[in-house]
Amino acid sequence: MLLYAMFDDLFQILQSISSYSVPLLVTLAVSSLLRALVFAPTTPTKEIPLARHASLNILSWLVPQFDWLQNGFKHIHDAFNRNPNEILRLPSRDRTQIVLPPRFLDEIKDLPRSVMDVGKATSDFFVGNWTTMDVDIFGHATVDAVSAQYISRMNHQVAPSLNEASFAFSQAFSECKDWTTVTLPSTILPLVAQTVARTVVGPELCRERDWIYSVIEYSQNVFMSAVYLKLGPQILRPLISMLMPQTYRIRQHRRRIHQLASPLVKQALQTKGAEGVYHKLKTSVDWLVEVSPEGEATPEMIIHRLTGISFGATHTTSAHIMNCILDLANDFDTYAGPLREEIDTVLDADGTQITNAHLSKMWKLDSFMKESQRFHPISALSVNRTVVQPYRLSSGTVLPQGAHISFAGGPMSQSDEYFKNAKSFDGFRFERMRRNPSQDHHGLQFTSTYEGTLHFGHGRQTCPGRFLGSAISKIVLIKLLQRYDFRLAPGQSRPEDMTFMDMVVPHPECQVMFKDRDS
To answer: Which PANTHER family does the annotation name (predicted)?
Structure first.
């Protein structure tokens, strides 16, 4: 039913890079030659040191690029650990990438989008002009709609998410009377995609197999297109885009998404402004229609932004849930008992259906999720911004227009500067810190941020969808813990994450064994 090619394709790319395949070498050789001929090696950031030493000589440029593609995550960690107070430039091919040290965080975090823009940074990361993930998809209306729905009115999102997760769960997980091996990516991703869709497009569409399939396939083809486009210089992007099969798949899935969502969007546009409608706003479709300015309240733009919301919520939440499951399975006896006791205590207090208030009382579960995220973030970088206009730091360094700036959120979260025994996994670390009256409680919840946990960003442009991701993650983990025991295969250790440039994802073939508790 589902092609879960996103992580697997990425794995194949790494294998081809590792073996230095001839076609890939030829592509990069031509690209490097064009880059050397077309682009001058001078840069306004040339005084900022590279995280990994590299030469701009044509021949010696190839190996560092392979190295960055394969080991960028490690190089960011190594560079931060060598000197956490140094401004670094990353050897990225497609844009100027600058990593700022923590001392600049307070200076950057609350700058407006007119100066530094997270939406532009996300679009640039996905080479948005060529993959349809352009700046409009992350426009003000998208942020306003997500904030209104998933921050201001999060209490109203838990019940429909719970109902849909229960249904999706029954479809994804069968009876496991004996120990049964489950491949996580192909199981968790469609479950999460369907659950997310319940509050994005509503009950009429969220169980439509074409919707789930198209959203997932659109997302993974955008991701892979961005990877391929980053391999070549900008001058070759029209040619690369034309030759990639992913380009045509993106268009195909966007057409299907538009066909499916169009009736809902048109109906919402027709009822906009009607008496009493505001209080009936239930889905992201409704909220996008409500907050979009007149020139942007068109079916095309609303559906365009729906794809961005679905993309962001589905894949990050799926990856996080998989990491939590793997961490639980890796030490199930230590964590399952206390987590189940907490779940039973909170839910048995009044016997009602799970609410947002219930979820907020589960401090141990919240802590475990945050610790899992601390060890397995989606990227080594966070608080990403594109510099919209040149900006002079307090140190005097000028960040040029168009540069991508970020902070080393991954290495920071593993630093002894912020945590005792930072390199040791401690699932209830944050729960104990919250209960300590002498501890500063700022930033200790899963959805909150501070210098030690920047994985949702920080400041004015922190991810507004993190509350939905948190709720869905907790709902899925609660259901798994209530029904199953789980473990890694005998003799197996937790599978290593797969890294690519600054990114990190669960291994595409990661598996866990489940067994019904009643069996």
So the answer is: CYTOCHROME P450, P450, PUTATIVE (EUROFUNG)-RELATED
List, for residues 364-389, the tens digit of each pLDDT value: 999 999 999 999 999 999 999 999 99
Beta strands 511-516; 484-487: pairing state:
antiparallel
Contact assessment for residue 56 and residue 44, using Cβ atoms and an 8 Å cutoff: no
| Mutual angle of helices 284-291 and 299-330, in 10-degree steps | 140
Contact 400, 406 (CB under 8 A): no
pLDDT range class, residue 16, cuts 50, 70, 90: very low
Extract long-range pairs of 340-347: CB within 8 Å, 24+ residues apart: 340/481, 340/482, 343/478, 343/481, 343/482
Look-up: residue for tokens 């190839």?
Answer: 62
The span from the CA of 375 to the CA of 414, in Å, is 7
Task: Specify the amino acid at residue 23.
Answer: P
Residues in the chain: 519
CB 384, CB 455: distance < 8 Å: no
Using a cut of 0.70, tell me whether the model's pTM lies above it: yes
Per-residue pLDDT tens over the stretch 193-221: 999 999 999 998 999 999 999 999 999 89
Residue where the block lists tokens 């430039």: 89
The sign of the CA dihedral 290, 315, 413, 435 is positive
Between 251 and 95, name the one with better pLDDT.
251
The residues, ordered by sequence, that sit 6+ positions from 79 with a Cβ below 8 Å of its Cβ are: 51, 52, 86, 88, 99, 408
Given this model, what pLDDT does residue 175 score? 77
Residue 240 region by backbone torsions, left for phi larger than 0, else alpha for psi between -120 and 50, else beta: alpha
Q: Are 32 and 61 in contact (CB under 8 A)?
A: yes
Structural fold of domain 6-516:
Cytochrome p450 (1.10.630)
Mean pLDDT of 400-424: 93
Residues 445, 453: Cα–Cα separation, whole Å: 10
Q: Where along the chain do its domains lie?
A: 6-516
Strand-pair partners of 181: 513
Q: Which two tokens stand for residue 332?
A: 């199930």
d(C-alpha 355, C-alpha 159), whole Å: 7
* 103-112, 273-282, 430-439, 500-509 — most confident range: 103-112
What amino acid is encoded at 477 in this protein? L
Q: What is the pLDDT of residues 127-180, one digit of tens each?
A: 888 999 888 888 888 888 888 888 888 888 888 898 898 888 888 887 788 899
